[in-house]
Amino acid sequence: MACGDHRAGPDGKGAPYTPRMSQIHVRAQPGDVAPYVLLPGDPNRARHIAQTYLKGAREYTSHRQLLGFTGTYQGVPVSVQTTGMGCPSAAIVTEELARLGATTLIRVGTLGGATPSVAPGDLVIATAAVPNDGTTRQMLGGAPYAPAASFEVVEASVKAARAHGAPHHVGLVMTEDAFYASTPEHARLWAGRGVLGFEMEASAIFLVAAQRGLRAACLTACSNDIGDPQLVPDEVLAAGVDRMVRVALDAVVTLAANDAG
């Protein structure tokens, strides 16, 4: 359409015609994205989740490698949308998903354990995130704030973890920007304040979700102890990720049933 096109609008009075636009980064239209969305950081994990766990999954976007897929799980429409790494990208994706009609967002990723009590492959279900990141600080103008998960989603996730017999921990995580800046001393300091581990997206997702009236949660599989620079063996982490995704999807089923009732 040429610039300045003045086709008749819905009222037939010749109002300027505005085409329905996709979002800038998540190139999708309303209706492409399900109300319930899993948010992995890694596009390869997004594809794996869609192909492994969802029925009839179709790709609705690949723009900027922010891969997005929609299918069903036990009859419930579910999307899987890549966020990329870090809060700036996660905040953009969360905002655009809100505009696309998402209502419940569950981050599914990995974290570094702050204490040896969080074993490799264990599931961590965040109740809130210490916002040690720049994105939430800018969004809040430096105001004190506690980005928290939605209780309903945490409750459903804990129920699902127990049903699966998945080793899990429930509590605080810390969201940080600098992956390689964490030290064992830093980790143990924050473990003494109740932090279970460190990840890179939850605080921004929680904040944008709160601002936009969405439910949000963060489930992560422990990839290593901060005191140990080596990641766990691939098979251990893969098993932890599988448990995490199954718990997240079963939580979605519970939430969908509650929402329908």
From TrEMBL:
Domain Nucleoside phosphorylase: 36-244
PROSITE patterns xrefs: PNP_UDP_1 (PS01232)
Reaction(s) the record says it catalyses: uridine + phosphate = alpha-D-ribose 1-phosphate + uracil
UniProt-listed InterPro entries: Nucleoside_phosphorylase_CS, Nucleoside_phosphorylase_d, Nucleoside_phosphorylase_sf
One family name in Pfam for this protein: PNP_UDP_1
Alphabetical UniProt keywords: Glycosyltransferase, Transferase
Annotated EC: 2.4.2.3
Source organism superkingdom: Bacteria
The keyword Glycosyltransferase belongs to this UniProt entry's keyword annotation: yes
Family from the record: Belongs to the PNP/UDP phosphorylase family.
Protein name: Uridine phosphorylase
Species whose genome carries this gene: Deinococcus caeni
Record gene name: deoD_2
